[in-house]
Each structure stands twice: as structure tokens, then as C-alpha cells.
Amino acid sequence: MSIELNRPTLRQQHQAVTREKLLWASYETFSSRGFYDTTVKQIVDHAGTSRATFYLHFQSKSEALAAAWREIQLEKMEPLWQYVDQLSPWSSESIHAWMDRMIAAWEAAPQFALSSNQALTLDPIMAKEWFDGMSEFCSLVPNLLATIDPDIDKAKMRFILLCTQMERTAYMWLSGNFPGTRSELLHSLSYFWITMIESGQSRS
What we know:
Oligomer: single chain
Order of helices and strands: HHHHHHHHHH
Keywords: DNA-binding, Transcription, Transcription regulation
Domain HTH tetR-type: 16-76
Protein name: HTH tetR-type domain-containing protein
Number of strands: 0
CATH topology: Tetracycline Repressor, domain 2
Pfam families: TetR_N
DNA-binding region: 39-58
Largest sheet: none
């Protein structure tokens, strides 16, 4: 008779279910109210739990936002990074089409994207999560990184800087502060990415 030594206990299963409820409650509350206006009470009310239970899983609303960003939002973005890596050889048209899909993904959850960017400027927890997430995306784009620069560290740095530019520009667009049309937004962001790619290709 085999014994499953690593099988979670009923208590551990219950804790995992509760955390998942809090995670989605956080995502949905931040998505509807934004970072500044969301409170822990609103999250626990939405999840049907208590403040005490919330603090068993997260130290603050910032930590809950960071977890929701990493475990929900980043998962949604992973296929888009895998997609652009498979476009090689890249062209202005293919990068423009990819950028359109990236912006559409942010537009599908605008308030959560705005909440994340608001927290980035205020909270070191969210800032660290963001840079860790961008570093993880590097593993999804090996072809792109190899094209950007044969020195992998330089390639990762350029990739992360372009991601930063793209995220901040998308934030300006979603908040209604971008000084142009959606078409101009796509053209400008695509130009920076294809320029970096072509620069790398010219060195190879």
C-alpha cells in the first residue's frame, strides 16, 4: 500500500482555496476601484472572508496586488511574449500586429493595469515584483534576446528598458493622457522595438 507523503492536509487545501479566493477578490476589486480607492475591507468583503484571514496570506493590499499581478495578469501576458519570439525574422508589420495585441490585452483590464502602475510609483513591493516579472519574461524570448545582442546581460537590460517604456506609455494611454491616437501609439512603440531588433540584426 503506497502512502502519499506529499499530499496536502485538509487544512492546507482549505488555506489554498482561501488564498485563491482572496487573490481573485483582490484582482477584481483593484480592477473596479483602482489602487488608491481599494481597501482591505473591500477585498475581504468581496472574498467572503475576514481581515484576520487576509493577513494570514498577505501583509498588505500592496502585497495582494503584487500577487494578483504575478499570478493572474502575468499569466495572461506570457502567450504574447512567446508569440513575438516565434515571429523571427521580424518585420515592421509583424511587430506592429504584436504591439496591437499587447495594447488590447491592457485595454481588456484597464483599471487593473492602472492600479499596478499607480502602485509601482508608491510601493517597493510592487516595483520589485514588476522587475522580477520582466526578468522572467526574458526566458520566454530567447530568439529575441539573441537578436538584440549576443551579450545576454546587455540584451536583457535593453529588453527590460523597452518593456518599461511600453508599460509607462500604455499607462498614459489608458489614463487618457497620451498625446495622440491609438494608431500613433502603436506606430511609435512598434518603431522603438523594430529599431532595436534591426540594430541587433545589423551586427550579426
